[in-house]
Amino acid sequence: MKKLIYRTFGLRDGEIFISFLMQLYIFLIITVLLIVKPTVNALFVSELGADNLPYGYLLVALTAVITTYFYSIAIRKYSLVKITVLSLVIFSIVFTILGFLLNFDYINHYILYFYYIFVSLFAVVATSQFWIFANMVFNAREAKRIFGFIGAGAIAGGIFGGYLTSFIAGSFGKEYTIFVASVLLLCCIPILRQVYKLKIRYLNTFKRKQVIANQDRLESSSLKLISKSKHLTYLAIITGIGVVVAKLIDFQFSDFAHKAIPNSDELASFFGFWFSTFNVVALTIQLFFTNKILHKLGVSSSMLVLPLTIGLGGLLFLTFPELWVLIIIKGIDGSFKQSLNKAAVELSIMPIPLQIKNQAKSYIDVAVDSIATGLSGFMLIFLVRNLNLSTSYITVIVLFFVFIWIILIYKLREAYFESFKKNIQKNLSFINAKKDKSKKENNLLDIKNVFEKGDEDEILNMFDRLKGYNFKVLQKPVIHLLKHPSAKVKVAAIDYLDAFNDNNILSEVATLIHNDDETLVYVALDYLLEHSRQKEKTFFNTYLDHEEEYIANGALLALAKQSMSNISIGRYYHLKERLEQKINEYIVNRDSVRKEIVAGLLLSIAYSRMTNHYDFITEHLHNQKPYITKFATIAAGITSNEIFIKDLLNLLDNKKHRKRAVRALKSYGPKIIDVLQELEKHDDLKSNIKRHIPKIVGAFQNEKSLSILEKILRSINSTSRLEATKALRKIHRKNEDLTLSKRIIRKQILKESNYYKRILECIISIQHLINKDLVDEINEENQTLYEARKTLSDALELELKKSFSIIFNLLSLLYTEEDIRITFDAFKSKNKEAKINSLELLENLLDNSIRAMVFSILEHEVLDEDHYNTTTIHITILTELELLNTLMKVSGSRVRHSAVNYIRVAENKALIPALLPIKKYRNKIVKQLANDTYISLK
Predict the structure, then answer these.
(1) Per-residue pLDDT, 415
(2) What residues does 717 pair with on adjacent strands?
(3) Residues of 79-116 as b/e, b for ≥16 C-beta within 10 angstroms?
(4) In angstroms, what CA-CA distances link 825 with 244, 340, 821, 831?
């Protein structure tokens, strides 16, 4: 049985139990839903009549929107496990109360409305909780293999729940179905606790909140995304019309069923039977017909099947207005919507980029559904109540919407092909950001040529540029690279091929295990473990105790990585004992242990979550060897443990480790922003580290990161402001809707322009002092003073360049980035004509208010040869003390250090006021220099 499950669903050793638990969880949730929904629907229709269903639709839509909003806030602030257990208990208690109310026949209109809304609330919250847990339990690779197996539980629950309701309600009474549902819900709690014990408890707070934040990000700014895409707009409207049609059909079906079956127990049994039958039909269509129809008709034509069959059913109903016809129509809607139509819709959104697709799909599935449900309620209230139309006339409205539905599918067909074209063009365009020695090719043929004829650096550079682009046409050329002499190229090739499931390269990769390069050995082992049909235990039995040490070490690292998602296999092979032994060997033979062994140990400790040895990672974050520090940084990022945050932040000050430290901190997820805010609040961030914070904050691309970047823009440190504008540009480039308000940007441009002029004023004032001294005879004393002034002037020059870059980065947030970039490049060039042309372009491009702020600066950059004088900006020559007082308010480019040093060299007591108070200096070196200078001058 195990072997059959492994082969059919692609499950691996240790995954079957956790997958079964998750499958059972969703099975119980959907079973409960299919018990309470037909029971409460039958009650509602029997007691209040179908005429009141529109009010139910309307209230359900409003409640769904409000609940989703507050629930989203709750799961961000509190433990998801606790919230889920509490909600399951509340749902069970509320359903139990309903059972007692039914048993004592104490039901009124308010109670019925409450439970009708409550069942819809249960459907939204319980399923949402399950999928968040599923994303915590399984990583992206595992999800591809396992979600199909888990999804079978939802289908089984949909079938079992309805038939169970039909049997219990028909045999014993509807109140017993509710009691059964309450008990089944409580059964979910021990399952959830077991899932927590097996997987979720090993995720720290950062990892858990990251999953929830990813969910939130998918729901933000979706309306703007959809409105900007014809493709998504048509899809959203089609989905909305589908929901409206479904609600109209549901209303007719419920009304006719109630008239034919007035007894609520019998009606609940009727609903339960047919809801399950529709699920059986949907499953049959999905398994045996969906792929064939999609292959024969294509995506767009397959989407026509549902509206056309509903339309034919509507025409049949106008001829024979009977319940059996409505059962057919309801069956068509329930069966095709969950099988063929769902598959066609999923395929129709395929050309949209993945990030946008996920974000938009989430909004369409939840928000559009709620809006359409509310609209259906309004429509039915108007038609049934106000116009007093017979239920049969609603079929005419259904046919009208079906007609619009069909037209929109044809419109979507055009947008579908257009999106494909755009996506292909985008994938084939590679914009060169740097000037490389070799030419960077822009089409697939040239990429192939690089893989076939390029040297190691060219091939690795191409792989770097291809990250995120998995072209099937490149599969064969990349497979050939497995025979390349460079181990680095082979590693990159295996990484690229990992995205494809039909490589047939297991034998080639297996030969690489015996290579001398340990990184290649590990990557090869990891690929074999992931893609081979070989069971994990067979794999580890072969390699874990291999006679070649580097192969055994690679297998140990692969075991540690596998244990993250499969704890039992780590225990089976005594992973922690093996690692303990390796660590002890390292302690005894510290000086003779190869650096590759230490790197593997660091990663293994991180993957296996050996918290008692996290100090091993901490120790090597301070290692003098860059190679070991590199892997310690990666290991810290894998753990995402709070104890490493300060060490990682300190690495930002080291250029060699900066990029990797930023990546490690990004892996903590959006919650790292809260930690950084707390450190800033308590003044625990060094000034030289603060300037790199925008790189981390900007990576999360949400409203909170924008808020932090806006705060950084107000910093007195120019480097921090520059990095903040770079991060804002990057966010804006990826998502135009996620940007600061134009008012804030304009305000910052004005501030930065004034800052530029103030720095320019300081440079000219220093030059004035230099020129004044040059009148006197040069001697050794004023030569030292001259050099101090020159150092100060150079520091201000650097500050001026940064300020100029900040202005242009801010301009790129208001205007087309490409236009601003071209003009900026021209200003930075030595070509006078290019500068003049750029000035002319900006004069026409910028609006009056922005032009008034920056144009004198732009003219200065073009017309004045250097910064020692200006003909375009009004400047006041500052006295020596005024100059130094101004410079003490500047942070960045070592300006304060140079200013204090200038006072020390000048040995002028009149300048002491510029030094005070000493406590204003945050930098320890500058503070000490200021203190020493003050003592020497006093």
Answers:
(1) 76
(2) 891
(3) ebbebbbebbeebbebbbebbebbeeeebeeebbbebb
(4) 54, 53, 6, 10
CA-wise closest residue to 530 among 552, 511, 551, 506: 506
Q: 10 Å Cβ neighbour count for 916?
A: 11
SS3 at position 502 = coil
Q: What does R_g of the chain's alpha carbons equal in angstroms?
A: 34
d(CA 36, CA 18): 27
Q: What does the CA dihedral 361, 362, 368, 373 come to, rounded to 10 degrees?
A: 130
Give the pLDDT band (50/70/90) at residue 632.
very high
The answer to whether residue 444 scores a pLDDT higher than 70 is no
Nearest CA to 148 out of 28, 280, 19 is that of 19
The SS3 of residue 714 is coil
Long-range contacts of 129-135 (CB under 8 A, 24+ apart): 129/80, 129/83, 129/84, 129/87, 130/22, 130/25, 130/26, 130/29, 132/75, 132/80, 132/211, 132/212, 132/215, 133/22, 133/25, 133/80, 133/84, 133/192, 133/195, 133/200, 134/22, 135/211, 135/214, 135/215
User: How distant, in Å, are the alpha carbons of 230, 606, 672, 725 from that of 709?
Assistant: 32, 31, 14, 8
pLDDT at 655 over 80: yes
Confidence of residue 355 (pLDDT cuts 50, 70, 90): low
Cα-Cα-Cα-Cα torsion 307, 308, 313, 318, nearest 10 degrees, comes to 100
Average pLDDT, the chain: 81
The pLDDT of 64-92, averaged and rounded, is 79
Alpha-carbon span 482 to 472, nearest angstrom: 17
Long-range (24+ apart) CB contacts under 8 A made by 621-627 are 621/647, 621/648, 621/651, 622/647, 625/595, 626/656, 626/657, 627/595, 627/599
Tokens of residue 415, six digits: 């947008």
How deeply is 145 buried, as exposed, middle or buried, from its count of CB atoms within 10 A (0-12, 13-18, 19+)? Answer: middle
User: Which comes out higher in pLDDT, residue 144 or 688?
Assistant: 688
Per 3-state DSSP, the chain is made up of helix, strand and coil in percentages (nearest 5) of: 80, 0, 20
Interval 702-712 mean pLDDT: 82
pLDDT over 90 percentage in the chain: 14
Give the integer Cα–Cα distance in Å for 665 and 515.
33
Query: Is the distance from CB of 444 to CB of 428 less than 8 angstroms?
Result: yes
Instruction: Kindly report the three-state secondary structure assignment for every residue of 72-119.
Output: HHHHHHCCHHHHHHHHHHHHHHHHHHHHHHHHCCCCCHHHHHHHHHHH
